[in-house]
Amino acid sequence: MAHVAHATERPQKVSDGSASQSSKVVRKPRIDCIDGCRFALVFPIILGHFIRFGVDNKRLLKLLTQENVLVGGFFSISGYVAAYTTTKIRERSHDAKKFQEPELFFWQKVMSYYPLHFLVSTLGAPMFIATDRLMKNSWRTTGMHAFLNYSLLQAWFPSEAEIWNPPTWFLSALSFANFTLPAILPQVARLSKDGLQKLLVALSAVSLLGKLSYSQAWKFYCRGGFAEKTAHPYLWNVTRFHPFGALVEIVTGAAAARSVMLDDENQKPSMNPLWLFLASYASLGLRLTSLNLNDAMIRTLLFMPLYTKFLMEIHRDCLTEKPHLITRFFGSKLMTSLGALAFPMFILHGPIGQIFYKKKIAEKLWGGILPKKFFPFYLLLVMVAGHFTNEFFVKSKKVQQLSAWLARKLADSTKGMLSDAVPLNRDNSMEKLAGA
């Protein structure tokens, strides 16, 4: 197997209450191909945020400014990986050790991305504050923006979701999801394949309701965000940024992973993952047709179902002896290396872009927004900065040790927040409740 280590098994005694029997605990192989998929998501998202400063072609702008569709793929991957690493293969159960301290689970998740967010926010603070002041915001408003940014609460405020480093609303929504996962993932792990399929349908319906609400208030079709602005910007921000919507997509990814993990040992992919990958990205092409649905509808009706199915099939394919070409490509050393750059590039591309393309900042630094011929150099700068940040900060042992120490301290100080630190004695629980 080229891009996944073989799963190894060891015998373990289990008891069903009446007799002992032998069972096998499967060790999970690493799924490198899903890591490689991250770069295929982050690069068009970066393009979408700043492509208007690089090209004038309206058809290209229509096609490439759909970053709000693609970001759903990141939420799906987050849920997929969370479920894969915390639940058991071919068993309807979770790894109890992973959730033994749910507060620690939550803070470890947060500390996997907060240090870089804190670093970039602090280094960019002079620019972010200057932008606030140049836009005539009061010091009180500027201070509130700083608080929301550092506390990762901005996604809850539709009027402030894109403050300072706008893409970090993703981390704000992700943090809420991570807070709920210790309670949600064990329940999802208990479901059968049939139950998981029904859950996926229900989650898709819930997600669609929010998008229908927005579309009914505005319109179902649009020419693209670069050409026309929504008449309801706060409703649009709630639709695309709200943490509850992110949680729905994350749990969708988790349910998809569990469905694959319950496969029979010799389960084969139902189709070549390439076709699902192409179909999911081809959904963006609707913007060039008369069926130019708005981003919210494309994301929920087409992209998310197709992309989630793609993750399931590429997962199954990578476990076979002869994976398809696309699986080998995304699992290659090149793509997994680029996938490792996805997170730092995502955090860095906003502040770097503001230096060159934020009007008030660019006028102060360069006399105006830089010409379109500079755009390829901007993309190269983001990649280079992402590489060095990944090598010397994200991978830094000192940063990792500090993050682990902070997670431990925060978990200790919040113990009981997600699991009762003093369990209730069931034998006399009613008397205690009556006494209280």
Radius of gyration: 23 Å
Low-confidence stretches: 1-23
Tell me the quaternary state: single chain
Strand order of the largest sheet: 1-2
- Structural category is mainly alpha
Major sheet summary line:
2 strands, antiparallel
Helix content: 55-70%
N-end to C-end Cα span: 60 Å
- Number of DSSP strands? 2
Shape: globular
Order of helices and strands: EEHHHHHHHHHHHHHHHHHH
Determine the strand fraction and express it as a percent band.
under 5%
Number of helices: 18
**Mean pLDDT over the residues:** 86
Overview of the molecule:
By secondary structure, the chain is mostly helical. The chain has 18 helices and two strands. Strands 1-2 form a two-stranded antiparallel ribbon. The N terminus is likely disordered.
Tag the structure with descriptive keywords:
436 residues, mainly alpha, two-stranded antiparallel sheet, 18 helices, 64% helix, globular, disordered N terminus
How are the SSEs ordered, and which strands pair?
Blueprint: E1 9-15, E2 20-26, H1 32-50, H2 58-64, H3 67-86, H4 102-111, H5 114-134, H6 139-151, H7 169-189, H8 193-217, H9 233-241, H10 243-261, H11 273-282, H12 295-318, H13 325-330, H14 333-357, H15 359-366, H16 375-394, H17 397-413, H18 429-435
